[in-house]
TrEMBL record:
It holds the Pfam family Rhodanese. GO terms for biological process: sulfide oxidation, using sulfide:quinone oxidoreductase. The active site is at residue 94. Coiled coil: none annotated. It comes from the Eukaryota. Residues 32-130 form the Rhodanese domain. One of its GO terms (cellular component) is cytoplasm. GO terms for molecular function: thiosulfate-thiol sulfurtransferase activity. SMART domains: RHOD (SM00450). This is Thiosulfate:glutathione sulfurtransferase isoform X2.
Length: 131
């Protein structure tokens, strides 16, 4: 399945180093300032129940394939410009952090050196934002 490491999703995935994670406070500032590209890697069904403003939904199962697309194909499929490999604030998130960490790891292996994970995920965001 694209987007998953050999061995499947159930395989243990090392925790992302602290430097690869972003806090709620930093995420809130980036969302408010519009200074980040935020990818929500949850399923469309999860996103339908709520999402972080201006986030782009690309399920974790599609992340690797999506980031390998040429810019034109990416834009046609997701209706936004493909992130540059040196994008300063490239943030991935899911519900609680695991899939976001996996997506950030995949992005890093593809050369997106600034990819980070919002470890608190939508669960923390919705609790703190009251949504």
């Amino acid at each position: 399945m694209p987007g998953y490491r050999e061995g499947g999703y159930g395989e243990a995935v090392p925790s992302a180093p602290v430097g690869n994670n972003i806090s709620y406070e930093d995420m809130k500032a980036l969302v408010a300032g519009g200074g980040a590209r935020i990818f929500d890697v949850r399923s469309p069904e999860e996103v339908a129940n709520g999402h972080i403003a201006n986030s782009i939904n690309i399920p974790v199962t599609e992340i690797e394939e999506a980031l390998k697309m040429d810019p034109e194909t990416f834009k046609m499929k997701y209706a936004v410009d493909k992130p540059q490999v040196d994008e300063k604030n490239l943030i991935f998130h899911c519900q609680m952090g695991r899939r976001g960490a996996l997506a950030a790891e995949i992005a890093k292996t593809l050369g997106y050196t600034n990819a980070r994970n919002y470890a608190g995920g939508y669960k923390e965001w919705s609790e703190k934002e009251g949504k």
